[in-house]
Amino acid sequence: MAAPVGARTLVAPYLLGPGRAADDLPAALGLADGPAALVRYGAEVDAVLVRADDEVRLVAAADLDIEPIASRAAYPLARVRARPGRGEVVARSDAAARLTRAWRTSLAAELGAAMSAAVEIARAHVAVRTQFDRPIGSLQAVQHRLAEAYVSAQGATWLARRAAWQLDDELAPALAAAYATSVAPTVFDAVHQVVGAIGFTTEFALHHATLRLPVLIAELGGPDAHAVAVSRIKWPRTERRSS
Question: Is the pLDDT of residue 238 over 70?
Answer without folding.
Answer: no
